[in-house]
Amino acid sequence: MAQAWLSMRGPSVRGRPGWFPHFFLPSHLLTDPFALPFSPGKVEAQHILASAPTDRNLSHFRALGCRTTHSNQEVLQNCFLVFFATKPHVLPAVLAEVAPVVTAEHILVSVAAGVSLSTLEELLPPTARVLRVSPNLPCMVQEGAMVMARGRHAGSSEATLLQTLLEACGQCEEVPEAHVDIHTGLSGSGVAFVCAFSEALAEGAIKMGMPGGLAHRIAAQTLLDCSSPTMQEPPDLHTRK
Fold it and tell me: Residue ranges of the Pyrroline-5-carboxylate reductase dimerisation domain (predicted)?
């Protein structure tokens, strides 16, 4: 059974007793899915139900106070807002497993890179409400740059709910699905290029005689300065259209 992370049951919502309306995605990092801390004020740990195939994975959630299970179907039966955070090649098997218990009440969110909304909808019941999210590494420190897209049956209320919760991890914008894969290169993989550039800046300073720790701190702060709103489009560096 593949891993899926989902929210747990709680007070009534939309007239459905036992369905909890809030959730929080612990992490998008499939290699280290427990690195992202919970955001204070958004969702409490006891309101999260996590599913994974092994206790090794679930132990991290238990340490945070989350509820856990080895059954993906159990989560669907107890939750209405569901995140699927699996490797892309694993996701079809997970969806096939849970499809029999998906209802019109569920909101299903995929974090799997490259898996289109049409593919998700083909693997789920015809009226399933599906959304895609593309996060990036800085979500770990609540400075992420995320985009999201909704499927045919997901409305503005579902998009607003998801966007509101994800903004606890940084910036989240709704985009056409075509922009989701572009985001993977721009901001997902882009983090690695920025880090490589920062490293190169620091190494240049070190070769000129600056202490390593100081060089890396200055390089990091320089990039941070350039990312501030006042520097994102300075008139002397960009030609305005």
Answer: 177-225
Closest by Cα among 16, 14, 19, 54 to 34: 54
Residue boundaries of the structural domains of the chain: 4-176, 190-231
Report angle CA 59, 143, 164 to the nearest 5 degrees.
80
Contact between residue 1 and residue 53 where contact means Cβ atoms under 8 Å apart: yes
Q: What is the pTM of this model?
A: 0.77
Query: Which CATH superfamily groups domain 4-176?
Result: NAD(P)-binding Rossmann-like Domain (3.40.50.720)
pLDDT value of position 173: 94
Q: pLDDT tens across 54-70, in order?
A: 888 788 888 888 888 88
Which residue numbers in the chain have pLDDT < 70?
Answer: 1-42, 228-241
Instruction: Categorise residue 65: left if φ over 0, alpha if ψ from -120 to 50, beta otherwise.
Output: left
Residue 84 and residue 95 in contact, taking contact as beta carbons nearer than 8 Å: yes
Residue 171 · residue 198 · CB < 8 Å? no
Buried b (16+ CB within 10 A) or exposed e, 19-45: bbbbbbbbbbbeeebbebebeeebbeb
pLDDT reported for residue 221? 93
CA-wise closest residue to 79 among 125, 28, 31, 11: 11
Distance CA 46, CA 120 (A): 29
Token pair for residue 163?
């966007």
Among 195, 193, 174, residue whose Cα is nearest residue 185? 193
